[in-house]
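Review this today:
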Amino acid sequence: MDTFKISELAKEFGITTRSIRFYEDVGLLQPDREGAIRIYQRRDKTRLKLILRGKRLGFSLAEIRELFDLYDTNQSDGQLRQMIAMIDEKQHKLQRQLNDIKVVMEELNAAKSRCKLALNGKTKEK
């Protein structure tokens, strides 16, 4: 079975060992220990990848923990509905952000075009 040291995971994911220890402190990772050395399993590596992805997508650590808890337990209908609701809420938020980004990109492109036109007009005057 593959195992990993904290320094290996930190290097692979481009984060600090302190961040990984923090995720352990808040209960998102549970490495094995050999004395003072943490030994991470493939499950921990996968969870770390999901934590970082969740953070990039705007999930809080509490939301990520809740998703992990739902995954780790026997998923009743209520838990699955809760997970669907969380996902729906996040999708709506991301869609609003995407729409806002599209509007800003259009405004930036228009401003850039106006600047280029102004520069071309000055070049012709000379």
